[in-house]
Amino acid sequence: MPKISIIVPVYNGEKTILATIESIQKQTFFHFELIVIDDGSTDCTLELLAQICEPRMKVISYENGGLPVARNRGIANAIGEFITFIDADDLWTSDKLELQLAALQQHPEADVVYSWTLFLNEAGTSFHQSEPIYFQGNILPQLLLKNFIASGSNVMIRKQAIASVGYFDPTLRSCEDWDYWLRLAAKCAFAVVPKYQIIYRQSTTAMSSKVEVMEKHLLIVHERGFRLASPELQFLKNQSLANIYEFLAHLCLSYIPGNTGAKQAYQKLRQAIILYPLVLLSKRTQVLLTKTGLLLLSPISENILQKIKILRAKKVESINT
To answer: What kind of architecture, by CATH, is found in domain 4-208?
Structure first.
C-alpha cells in the first residue's frame, strides 16, 4: 500500500499539468500513489496525461464540480496513510514529500505539516519568497490572522485527521483552503519544514485576481474561523480583518491597472487602518500606501513600479526543482 496519496485536481490544465506531474515524479520519496482528478476538462489535458508513463498514477474523470469538489473526490479515492494536494499549475521541490513525511514522523503529536512557499510569476521566469514562518503546535491564533500556508498545494495530512474534520466545503468558490486549514488547526497540532518547497504559480486568471469574489469568501471564512476560536482569541478579530483588507489592497494593485486599481486599493487600506490602526506599523502596509499614493499622483509611476518589481524578482533558475 502506498504511504502517501498525492491528489492533483485539474481543470483545463494543458499548459502546466506536465510540469506539475514532472515535479511529482522527481520526488526523492517514491512510495506514493498519484491521483489526478480531471474536473471535466475540455482542452487537451486528458490527452497529455495519457502520454505519461507513470505506473503510480491513475486519472479519474468527473463532470465539472469545482476545485473543492475535485479535492474531495481525490480524498475519497485515496488509500495512503498521508494525503497531500498539489494544484495543476504548481510545483514542488524534489525533497517536499521526504522532508514533510520525516517531520510528521519526528512529531507524532502533529497531524499536519506545511513548508514555505515561493511565488512564481505567470511566465515561469522569476519568483518571490514568502516570509519565513516557524509556527508549530497550536497554530490557530496565527492562522486566524493570516493564511500563511498560502495555497492548497502545501500541507501533508494524516488521513485520520481528515476523517475527524471532513471534506473541503464545496460551497466555497475561493479561500476553501484557508477554511480547511482553520478547521484542522482547531483540532490538530501542526509541524513545519523550514524550507522553501512549494512553488505557487501566480496567474492573472486565478481566483485571487477576482478581487470581489475573493473579498466575499475571505469574509465568510474569517467569520467561520472566529466561530471556531475560543473567547480568548476573539480580540484578534479586527487585526485579522485588517490583514484581509491589506491583502485585498495588494490584489487591487496587482490585477487592476492604473488609477482604478489605485483607488480601490486606497479604499481597502483605509478600511484596514480604521479596523486596526497599528497596521500602519507594518512595512507591507507602508509599501502599499506608497505605491497607491504614487499611482494616484502620476500614471507614469505604474511603469516605474513595474520595473522595480522586475528588478527585485529572482531568476527561476535558482529554484532547486
So the answer is: Alpha-Beta Complex (3.90)
> Which residues neighbour 151 within 8 Å (Cβ) at sequence distance 6 or greater?
87, 90, 117, 177, 198, 200
Grid coordinates standing for 104? Answer: 510528521
Q: Quote the pLDDT of residue 112.
A: 98
> In the chain, which residues have pLDDT < 70?
123-125, 204-209, 298-321
Structure pTM? Answer: 0.91
Q: Select from 178, 158, 264 the least CA-distant residue to 218.
A: 178
Bridge partner list, 193: 115
SS3 label, residue 107 = coil
CA distance 10 to 59: 10
| Cell numbers that stand for 234 in this block | 476573539
Half-sphere exposure of 195 (CA within 13 A, CB side): 16
Alpha-carbon span 61 to 41, nearest angstrom: 8
Calculate Rg over the CA atoms of the chain.
Answer: 20
User: Domain segments of the chain: what residues?
Assistant: 4-208, 230-315
* Cell numbers for 223: 467569520
> What SS3 class is residue 41?
coil
| Count of CB atoms situated within 10 Å of the CB of 308 | 11
Angle at the Cα of 176 from the Cα atoms of 171 and 180, rounded to 5 degrees:
115
Please write the tens of the pLDDT for every residue from 143-164. Answer: 999 999 999 999 999 999 999 9
Distance CA 223, CA 58 (A): 38
Residues 247-284: tens digit of each pLDDT? 999 999 988 888 889 999 999 999 999 999 999 999 99
d(CA 215, CA 276): 18
Look at the alpha carbons of 248, 229, 193, 70 in this order and tell me if their dihedral is positive or negative.
negative
